Amino acid sequence: MEYVAAVDLGGTKIAAAIAGLDGRVLGRGVRPTAAGEGPGPVLGRMVEAVQEAAHAAGLDLGGARAMAVGAPGPLDPEAGVVLESPNLGWRDVPLRDILAERLGIPVRVENDANLAAYGEYRYGAGQGARYMVYLGIGTGIGFGLVVLGRIYHGATGNTEFGHMTVDLDGPLCGCGRHGCLEAIASGTALAREARAIVARRPDRLQPGETPAAPLVFRLAREGDGEAQQVLDRFVEALGAGVANLVNGLSPDRVVLGGGVMAAGDWLLERVREEARRRAFGAQWRATEVVRAGLGGDSGLYGAVALALDTVQGR
Amino acid sequence: MEYVAAVDLGGTKIAAAIAGLDGRVLGRGVRPTAAGEGPGPVLGRMVEAVQEAAHAAGLDLGGARAMAVGAPGPLDPEAGVVLESPNLGWRDVPLRDILAERLGIPVRVENDANLAAYGEYRYGAGQGARYMVYLGIGTGIGFGLVVLGRIYHGATGNTEFGHMTVDLDGPLCGCGRHGCLEAIASGTALAREARAIVARRPDRLQPGETPAAPLVFRLAREGDGEAQQVLDRFVEALGAGVANLVNGLSPDRVVLGGGVMAAGDWLLERVREEARRRAFGAQWRATEVVRAGLGGDSGLYGAVALALDTVQGR
């Protein structure tokens, strides 16, 4: 039987899979990553994770027809080089060539948010869309655009609408700018606000709870005014971000994924209502705003799809 | 000889041209439009303008192989229907069919900003670009994206990044939302600020001058603190808007056109510097930010190019 390998390299873990030519996952592997690790140890654990997946599938990794890897950007997808990964502390790492040499199979490297978008397009909530926008709201905000079945790359392969300025005088973002969407509407932004709430009122934190997004959501639900304000601003910014993309790119599907959106359909509803209010009629009527269908696996399935494309010479 | 017809329908005038199959303009015509006019009188003057162009070229309009029309506002380019044009007061006007029937030649209708983008791509400052972003900074802010030689349409044909929210709590836009790019960085926004300056200090207005963008630029140059603040905010917003598009779409060329950009290269320099500060390195290094090359004719040349495409079955 023929099969491919897929890896999703994240800030906290490496997820790997072996999949058949029909896209079905046959085996999985996982390893941890830690912030600031150099490429050496991470590369070793990437190989371990994908070997574990092959083992779970009862297959030999060397027999895989191709492998695709999603990595945090910016990266050069054509050269397969991670240009810079602040989370991992990488710079100019020729990921594709290192892995291809070590494993003896063709390897392709792609931005992780692009692969999450592509995974949703091929196997998740984006199936059948012609112009699909993906926003992954997690620690950061990842963006991907799939146009007529292809990942939109632009000139560099890096498309970062997660860092669009939506509030010129807004809070400082991890990227050094003020008022990025990510600075208001990401898990990191909600954790920052949660810490501020807890600093003022330590009693808000329950035993075993951490000051992060779920705390803001719980307090807001319980009627805490401060948490409600934080949530309102989150919804306002994310709704504006979605509306900017609906107005500007006129997708027929917007897929919202990432850990923060897992909070539930109530959050999707609020963001959708805010986006509707801010979108132009023609563009809004032509699109659907939905939650991701693959949970935390969007990126891994995107890597499966890209590896299959490689086998098919696409 | 073979030739095509082109019309750019604007808020104040109708510009028309007859062009040869090499794209060279052989004759021109022009007629005024007035705000709030219904379709009847405007359609009549569109026909007059293009007949004038044919006459100037010494050619018969009925012999044109095709005609393309750029029109404002949300429209359906496939059906050739102007859905809504607040400036002209139009709603659901089947522009293509009306003109095709009246003139007896094939007609195509396209969003005016898309055609300005396409005109710059084919004959102006966007030539040779693979991923070209156009922003036309005039009364409003028009946006167009040309990807690998084709106008990007999305699901509806309407792509309005001129109305992206860049300032959640910003000034009210003509579209009814707050903090759109257009609400801060358009000619209309500068005129609003100019009027506010003049209301407070009527002596700022010289004889014959109107409270509009050039007044803000002149006062800022002369050291007026208030005008400098307005200009700074304009540059900040437009720089953020350009950076959002550079970060998000990774173009290899950004063309800035429209009447406001005609102020001079000093304005381009300031916007470019602000955008550079806000853009990611990988995307910034791969792009050039330039002024439009066709002045007020970008849209008209775009219509010429689209009419030629029609002749060539594209």
Tell me about this structure.
- Chains A, B: Keywords: Membrane, Transmembrane, Transmembrane helix.
- Chains A, B: The chain crosses the membrane at residues 131-152.
- Chains A, B: Belongs to the ROK (NagC/XylR) family.
- Chains A, B: Pfam families: ROK.
- Two copies of one chain form a homodimer.
- The first copy, chain A, is 40% helix and 22% strand.
- In chain A, strands 3-2-1-4-8 form a five-stranded mixed sheet, sandwiched between helices. Chain A has a five-stranded mixed sheet with strand order 11-10-9-12-13, sandwiched between helices. A three-stranded antiparallel sheet of chain A has the order 5-6-7, with helices on one face.
- Chain A has helices spanning 39-56, 95-103, 112-123, 181-185, 187-200, 213-221, 225-249, 265-278, 281-285, 298-311; strands at 3-9, 13-20, 25-32, 67-71, 75-76, 81-85, 90-93, 107-111, 131-137, 141-147, 150-151, 253-257, 288-291.
- Chain A has two domains: 3-117 and 297-311, Nucleotidyltransferase, domain 5 (2-Layer Sandwich), CATH 3.30.420; 128-292, Nucleotidyltransferase, domain 5.
- The first copy, chain A, is globular and about 60 Å long.
- Chain A has 314 residues and is of the alpha/beta class.
- Chains A and B meet through helix 7 and helix 9 of A and helix 7 and helix 9 of B.
